[in-house]
Amino acid sequence: MPLVNYSTPRKIHLETFGCTANMGDTLKLRALLRRKGHELVEEDEADLVIVNTCTVTKRTELNVLKRLRELKSAGKEVIVAGCMAAAQPELIKSGLGEEVPLVTPRDIGDAYQVGS
Fold first, then answer.
1. Where are the domains of the chain?
2. 72 contacts 96 by C-beta, under 8 angstroms
3. What is the side-by-side order of every strand in the sheet holding 77-82?
4. Which of 16, 34, 71, 97 has a C-alpha 20 to 30 A away from that of 42?
5. CATH classification of 11-109 is 3.40.50.1370, yes or no?
6. Whether the predicted model's global pTM rises above the 0.70 cut
7. d(C-alpha 57, C-alpha 27), whole Å
């Protein structure tokens, strides 16, 4: 399954919360998105925001949830990536709705290896 399956290039903003592993996954996402022709932009220019999340501490978890609500309130299309998407999908969906796409660290790694 492609991480961002769109027939036309999108303007995408990436945000990262968390550890060194998350930073590495964000670098992989950047490479994948550029390879697929998407443009990486600042938030105000983006029509899609990918938030790479972390659940290591309760404080970070709360900050992520707050940020996701802010983006949703601003009318941004959001994809939630990272360990929170893997470990707490029900928490994310309860706050943002069932339709929010979730991408786990494994999804990122698999896609990066095959270049999709």
1. 11-109
2. yes
3. 39-40, 11-16, 48-53, 77-82, 102-103
4. 97
5. no
6. yes
7. 22
